Structures are given as structure tokens and as C-alpha cells.
Amino acid sequence: MSRINVSKLTNENEEGGPSVSGISTFSSTAFLVPPKGTTAQRPEAVTPGMIRFNTDSGHLEYYNGVEWTEVLVANNSLDGGNRGLFGGGGVSNTIDYITISNTGNAVDFGDLSAIRDNISSCSSSNRGLWGGGNTPASSPAGTNIIDYVTIASTGNAADFGDLMVVRRDLASCSSSTRGLFGGGYSSTNIIDYVTIESTGNAVDFGDLTVARRYLASCSSSTRGVFGGGLTTINVIDYVTISSTGNASDFGDLNEARHELSGCSNSTRGVFGGGETGSRSNVIDFVIIASTGNALDFGDLTVERRTPGACASSTRGLWGGGRTPTSLNTIDYVTILSTGNAVDFGDLTVSRESLAACSNGHGGL
Fold it and tell me: Three-class SS of residue 69?
């Protein structure tokens, strides 16, 4: 192994750094300063593995051969662990938060811009978004509202833009950069998307394989997966988040159902709860990078429909829902195992048809 032990390297004119090749190891008690710049200044002539610091997001990012994506940080919220946010539901505009690595009751975060239920939520490591839903004034068609918050802070949501189509009962998922919204009332196949760290209206992505509402979704950093829906179907679709185009068939849920919720780490997607004609406590799972039918994972603590779900790299959580009365229950599982969910704590308000997101899910 070769070694260079110097305090400073410059070119011969001392106006910049030299090109260094053949170095396999750097050893120092100081630090390494990578190239940096805004999102708009990302270089175009890049190869997989190149790394830089994004001054807009405040995170290291690397080029994976398809897109620039953030370097995953396991503990990237202000309170020492990934945060999960639960927003809306019932006749509420409440946003709660929890620290996913702990257990305990949720704490008030702020409010959505409007009271609404049957909404969906997605997120980056920085922002949480809620799209669509049903307000008391919009019934039954829904709204096109998209709100956002900064996950590591607290406070009320701000306007982001609008969905392409007014709708409720939709599902959403995300990578570190894009948020996708799929399906919804009345049984549409629309998928639209936004760039999470910007603001503005959603644009067309493509179509689901089956038009439906009351579906669920989850994602890895490359794939978005949509499962179930009304009328009580078991269809699972997938898309490549960084591209656009119609969804492809992935496989089938273990149990056909609607009004379920999904969450994921980077490897597994888990779908919990729902309605089959009676309320369900079923949890099933898929391997996101493959295709095929879902497998049995275990059971929620309570049979329920319309909970909100979020995840870290290790845990999946479901909060709220209807049994037929509204719940404040939060359950959790360890995603890479199998087994029944256990009690986490309670939401601040009992509610159903809410939506949840986190700053540590599998799409980041």
C-alpha cells in the first residue's frame, strides 16, 4: 500500500488542487471536503459512484447510474432518530409525530392547511407531503391540495401546489427526490408526480394497470409499488420512480382487500389492515426489487381499515383506522422479520382515513 503524508496539496501554480490517482486509502483526523453546489449545478457528464455535497438539501449525494440520490443517514432528525408523521383523518387537520426507534405516544406537530380525510402522504428525508383527500366542503369528489412540512421541525403545513386531478382515496410513495400519487376516487388509474424539494403542481407520470381507489403503496429508492384497492382486488403494480410511464404487473397480495396501508424499508414492502367485506388485521409483504405474490407476515393488533403507515429502515408502523369506531392505536413490526405487530403507543387524536410519512423510509 502506498502512503502520502502531507498537510497540503496544490498544483504547480498553487491556484488549485492537483489530480491524484492510484490512492486507495486516506488517513487523517481532520476531514475531507467534497465538491459542492446546488441542485441546479449538478454536473451532467457523470458516472456511477460520483459524490458531492448538495447545498440546497444540506446532504451528501451520489450518482447511482440513473439519478443523483442522497446518501442514506440512519438518524437524520433532530430528536435522535427517524420521525414518523401522521396527518389528517376523520374531521381533523392534526399532524402528530413520533420517533420511530422509540415507543410511546405521539406529540402534536402542527396542522394541515385544511381538515381532510382519505388523503395520502409521501416524503423525502427533509419534507413530508400530503396530497388530495376529502374536506367537508368537497364531498364526495375530493380535493387537489398538496401541503408540505419540514419533518425535522414542527409547525403548520404550507401550500405546495395541486394534483393533476381532484381526488381522494389515493396512495402515494416516493424516492429521495420524487413523490408519486396513484389512483383515487372515482376509480382512476392516474399516476402523477412532483419534485419534493421544490413546489408546484403535479405532472403526469403514467397509469396504473387497473383503475382503483382505496389502494396502498410503498417504495424503494428506485421502485414504487401499489397494492390492493376497491373493488376488493389483490393486484400489485410497480413503476420505476425516476422515469415516467405506465405501471407493470408485480404480483398479487396474499389477501385481496381495500382501505389498507403500506410502508417499507429499502428491501421489503409491507401492507397492513384493510377491508375484505369485514375488517382485516392481515400483514403481508413483498421483496420490492423482485416480482411475485405477497407472503404472509403476521397480524396487526386490531382488525381495522384506513390506518396510516410509515417506516424507518427497521420498523413499520400503522396508526389510527376504523374498527368500526375510530382508533388512536399505533402498532409496529420489525420489517425484516415476520410476526405479529405489537403496541407502540397512541395518536393524539383518534381518527381514520389518515396518512403517514417519515424521513427514514425505504425510498431514501
Answer: strand
